[in-house]
Design a protein that fits this description.
By secondary structure, the chain is of the alpha/beta class. It has helices spanning 2-21, 41-49, 63-73, 84-91, 105-112, 129-142, 156-166, 192-198, 208-211, 213-223, 315-323, 336-355, and strands at 30-34, 54-59, 80-81, 95-98, 118-122, 146-149, 173-181, 231-237, 250-256, 261-267, 274-281, 285-288, 294-297, 302-304, 359-360. The strands form 2 sheets. Strands 14-13-12-11-7-10-9-8-15 form a 9-stranded mixed beta sheet. Strands 3-2-1-4-5-6 form a 6-stranded parallel beta sheet, sandwiched between helices. The longest helix has 20 residues, at 2-21.
């Protein structure tokens, strides 16, 4: 009964927010695209083709990449620039979206920040704590937003878990488990340009630990209201060295909190793709199987929970709301505050796996 009352009350609020976020006349963003090597760039291309965003320009120097995207999405020559500085000078976009190697995120912010242009990067924020802190310093100095985009941010189920936990539906959180992975980036058909840096220990910061470990670190930091874990312990494996010779392809990360434990399982070795989230409370259990299916267990049975639409369904709607001042990122999933902690967790996990010890965060 409590759950039904909670959802009757919040459903109206949620739909009101959705209607407000998609109201007629809302400004369509003009964005610059930094790089085409990240396969997630297809998302912005599809949004562009649907008229949900305007691409002011694309900064990419690789001729074969330019030709491929021009052909695939019927893009005019006028959209392309050899570098980000020229793109910004000629187009003055509302924001820049980075689709390049993680190690190149800092360079994007260094170019955009002095011009007062906000940036959204693909997860994770940076490969090193030093780069992440430099990004944060630039954002503060030039008063811009630096946001990080994760696919799982826009899962209705994840947003609903957060709401239910914070409404004390399952009591106090004691354990969180996130599974993120698939058969491997080469096995699922990622482009050679993407694989070139995704499997590089410097450009990506690592392998599966970084690629998929960031999702769990992001979600757990959010559920813990922006608090970093006390310590991090990680174990990695190199199961397919013939395919991924330079980086790990399987990782298990343990996060210690004062009264809770987080377990992140990240892999390029699973028989199928999975992004799920389990939360154990003192009185119940929630399991987001994917973006649409949510299970709840209070006593001895598992029940399906009706999943309601989240306020924001994709990164562009959210970015537009933040830039207009309607939404304050605070400590949410895309926020700089959250993702600085994510980078610290990933850095500690990498050190733990290499040194074979528990790493305390200070």
């Amino acid at each position: 009964m409590i759950i039904n009352v909670f959802y009757q009350r919040t459903l109206c609020i949620l739909f009101a927010c959705i209607l407000a976020s998609t109201a007629p006349g809302q400004k369509i963003l003009r964005v610059g695209v930094a790089g085409l090597t990240h396969d997630h760039v297809h998302n912005i291309m599809h949004q562009y083709k649907r008229g949900e965003v305007i691409i002011a320009g694309i900064a990419e120097a690789d001729a074969q990449l330019i030709a491929r995207y021009k052909k695939s999405y019927q893009l005019p020559d006028s959209l392309f620039y050899n570098n980000l500085s020229d793109l910004i000078t000629h187009t003055h976009p509302d924001a820049v979206l980075a689709y390049n190697a993680i190690s190149e995120h800092l360079g994007v912010v260094e170019t955009c920040a002095p011009k007062g242009i906000s940036v959204m990067v693909e997860k994770p924020l940076a490969t090193t704590v030093k780069d992440a802190e430099r990004i944060a310093a630039l954002a503060a100095q030039y008063h811009i937003q630096v946001l990080t985009n994760y696919e799982t941010t826009w899962y209705d189920t994840n947003q609903q878990i957060f709401e239910m936990v914070n409404s004390n539906i399952i009591g106090v959180t004691r354990k969180m488990i996130v599974h993120d992975g698939h058969q491997g980036p080469k096995e699922i058909g990622c482009s050679p340009d993407f694989l070139n840096w995704l499997t590089d220990p410097v450009k990506n910061g690592g392998g599966a630990l970084r690629d998929f470990g960031c999702y769990g670190a992001n979600l757990m930091t959010w559920l813990m209201h922006g608090k970093a874990p006390i310590a991090v312990t990680a174990v990695t494996h190199h199961i397919k060295p013939s395919i991924y010779p330079k980086v790990d392809d399987d990782a298990t990360i343990l996060l210690e909190y004062p009264d809770a434990t987080g377990i992140i399982e990240a892999s390029w070795n699973w028989p199928y793709s999975i992004k799920d989230w389990e939360v154990f409370g003192t009185t119940g259990y929630l399991h987001a199987l994917n973006d649409r299916q949510l299970l709840q267990r209070v006593k001895n049975t598992y029940d399906s929970v009706a999943v309601h639409p989240a306020v924001y369904r994709d990164n562009i709607a959210y970015l537009s709301s933040v830039l207009s001042g309607k939404t304050d990122p605070g400590n949410d999933l895309s926020s700089l505050a959250n993702n600085l902690i994510v980078v610290r967790i990933l850095d500690a996990a990498t050190r733990s796996s290499k040194e074979g010890r528990r790493i305390e965060l200070h």
